[in-house]
Design goal:
Elements (H helix, E strand, L loop, with lengths): L8 E9 L2 H32 L5 H10 L6 H23 L14 E3 L12 E3 L18 E4 L1 E2 L2 E5 L2 E4 L9 E3 L8 E10 L2 E9 L12 E6 L5 E3 L4 E2 L3 H19 L5 H35 L2 E5 L1 H7 L4 H24 L2 E5 L25 E3 L6 E3 H12 L44 H7 L3
Helix pairs in contact: 1-3, 4-5, 5-7
The protein binds zinc ion.
Amino acid sequence: MVRKEGQNCRNLRFKIHPTPEQERRLDDTPEYCRLIWNHLLSIQVDLYERFGLSVKRSSLEKHLKNLDYPIHSSVRLDVFQRLCFVFDKFFDDIKNGRLKNTKRKKVKFVKRKDVPCGNNSSGFIKYDGILPKGHPKFKSKEDLSSFRYKQHGNGWYLDGNWLYLSKITNKSNPIKINIDRLSDGELKTCTLKKEGIQWFAYLTVELPDNPTPSTPENAVGIDLGLKSFITTSDDDFVEPPKILRKAEKRLAKEQQKLSRMEFRSRNYNKQKQLVNRIHRKVAAARNHFSHCLSKVLVDKYNLIVFEDLKIKNLVKNNKLAKSISDVGWNKLVQHTVYKVAEKGKIVDKVNPNNTTQVCFHCGTKRKEKLKLEDRTFYCGNCGLEIGRDLNAAVNILTKSSYYNPSMMHTVGLAGINGCGDGTSTTGHGISSQVPSMNQQMLTPSKVEALMVQ
Ligand SMILES: [Zn+2]
């Protein structure tokens, strides 16, 4: 979901209980969205294939109005805007040379019956089957399982435990929704999504203006690493629960199996369902863990400094282990950011360049680069010998513009196993806790003790 920065929104997920008739309409809607997507895309593809041009947005919007499907106009508009967004990104990528090395593959001419084309009387869209990399893709039935109402009061509204959706419910017959807790704030969008056989509503709430941040006293820098999930500048580290790691490994394995199967064969479909199920489990476990950990961090510190993940990803090479952690890190940063905003504390993101290579104590950069397998950092200048991740975490903290040396950063996370359930919106009962952490703290005397020579 794209959101302007500084906009403090929360996404809450609730189970809904539609009647069979409502469920049928819910099931139909993504299909209509898909037809609209494919229709608009086919018009664009046609032009792009022939002339390398993109359609004027206004003329495409006119097309949109002519598509008469029984769905609410704001849902239709959302499909249109999403397509425009992907197209903008595609052309932007071309302009900036990010798609330079993509070659168009020459393949057999493919006709697709399920893709209606605007003015083409044959009803077929002509394209060579494979669109260039980064180009918006035609969607198949499996690709779309959700749709969105863009504005509360326009097409959807919530009344206590009842959800009203235009074109799906009527005034006397809303959908039952289980709302246990709703943050104060203005309701924005409502996304309906089918997961497995169950429908869920994702409600976005824009929170009121944040309290002004207090002057940070307790500060922490956080290194996101592969060996341990996070290492803090207080020399604490946190591992994700074993149950999550195990599920992630299983997911990777089953996904690999899936990739070897014949596309859309019977076995493929079966395996796909299994993979989806594990996906949901992993996501729930990840969510839970990340909520717990971020709560501990936010309760404990006023200033939390992360590495900027966008830059970090450019710096480091791609590996499977990393891509798994990546998702977890993103979640953690996301959850921390919104929790911090509610409490008037500060999150900062800094450029991770050189954080592993510079000695935090004397600031000297190592001549030889520290390799990924080196676990300890040794400084040739001042003789400091220290855990690699810890050194990075302290560097990350001191890089922040909010940091000043008088801040305490010796508060340990030790002894906190607590895990508030108040913030979890998933409600899955996975009994994971933030693991108890190693209790050492980084005090000046400890730094001295670390010096050899
Ligand atoms: Zn040094």
